[in-house]
Write a structure and sequence with these properties.
Length: 193
Amino acid sequence: MALEWRAREEGFMTWDHARFTQLYLDTHQRVLRYALRRVAPEDARDVVADTYVIAWQRRSQLPSNPLPRLLRTTHNRIGNLLRRAATRDALQATLEQLRGLEPPAADVSVLERLAVLEALNRLTELEREAMLLVAWDGLSSREAATVLDRSAATFAVRLHRARRRFSNHLEQLDVELSGGLQLCGSAAARGHA
């Protein structure tokens, strides 16, 4: 009798394992990229591993589209790993190092990248997260709202404000970095008139 029960249990685990393996194969790279943008590679691997352990433990609760839930779990795990101030300080230190590098003939794309990084740094952490989830993770507003545990309407307002502030910061940086020369183009040229 114990042998029969074990065989049924193993059959269930095999089906569950195959389904979960497919989930992992379909989502792992996106979840890892999400984590790598926020923490060091060794920390990202640990956070992603924790995310999938939690997903395995709660596999019966996973929705049909599990990516937003996985990203939300990853987001929460990163939040446990890092303090907000440490993250901001690390980004600020990196930007200061980049500002100190003044090659004789800086490529315009490098200057544009610096302007974008600085504009992102000037956003609040929540605004920055909203922008990154949609622009770099490719999530819809509804999916990004799920990641941040917000309503779709609240997220839409946050994203709208973040985009507006980001555009304003780029405008300011165009003037600050070039003494008036438009490095990234005006807001009208970028379609933000």
